[in-house]
Amino acid sequence: MDFERTAIFTAEVIKAGAKAILVPSNCPAHHSPSHTGLSPLWRQAEEASLPIVMHVGRGGQLLDLNISTMACRRSKIFTVA
Prior knowledge:
By secondary structure, this protein is α+β, with helices and mostly antiparallel strands. The chain is built from two helices and two strands. It has helices at about 5-15, 40-45, and strands spanning about 20-25, 50-55. Strands 1-2 form a two-stranded parallel ribbon. α1 (about 5-15) packs parallel to α2 (about 40-45). The chain starts with a helix and ends in a 26-residue tail after the last strand.
């Protein structure tokens, strides 16, 4: 996963006028939506007051069953319980 590219792309879509940030539920192997490498994405969305939406309707397993052990951090933005 290219965290630097994610931060750059997030800044670009915010500048272009995005109304929300879509995060897929099928994260790369050994990553969760709350992986610490994605902190810039969450911070940028929060600073721009943009909602984060998650697409979960792709079929199959929606989230990795080990999501709580994948370099997660707890925050007010996204918490994995």
